[in-house]
Amino acid sequence: MAPAPVGGVPVQPVTYRSWAEEWVAVRCTACGREDQWPRPELGCPCGTVLRIPVREDGGTGTGTALARPAEPSVPEAGPAAGPASAGPHPPGPHPAGPPAYIPLPRTAASPRPSFRPLTIRTAHDAVTAAALYLRWLGFEGVVRAGEGTEGAPYLIDLCGPEVVAQVEPTTRPANVRSVECLWLNGLGASALGVFFSLAGYADDALARADDLGIPLFVMDLTGTPRPVNGAADELVSTGA
Asked: Which of 45, 47, 78, 194 would disulfide-bridge 165, Cβ 3.0–4.6 Å?
């Protein structure tokens, strides 16, 4: 189930993010249940975020769901011919219908289970989602180190024995200074620095992170980080 996009309506850039406006009510067409879902967005590593318009009916979005295929009807068996038949036989067994889903064969062993994200509604949720992702990558002992210092109120760090992470939960793209500060923190702790941002990164920050080998991730409101540079892709492939 997901919000249904509206065709022919231009997308809008997100210049100000409000947590209350990032959710849309969607009703499941199969069971009728109504729940809150994040509005779909399209992000770019340059920092631009576009909001995709979805269909709303009186504040309630329209969801789509897979309906269970109808079971084929089988006529009941009539009385059997012959002298031994004393009455009608009970209905015969229904033949098994085609499966609704056929899984593809596994071609390679999964190195770890699928990541289970945490929906982001607040800045605290963003930090928690980043911590869960680092643990999923294999970093142990990841805890909250603090919420920054004076002069950098949005600096939120996570640390572990082998990793130091920074989370930027605002709508401003992370700048090159933040990337360099994270790199210095990693050097001081003899740990890998990992950066998470909700609004992407400035161009000079992307280039500097590539030079320093800092993995960069962009998180959406579902709490799923997405790698945006080569160092992040390599970290996802190899793990901690």
From this structure: 194
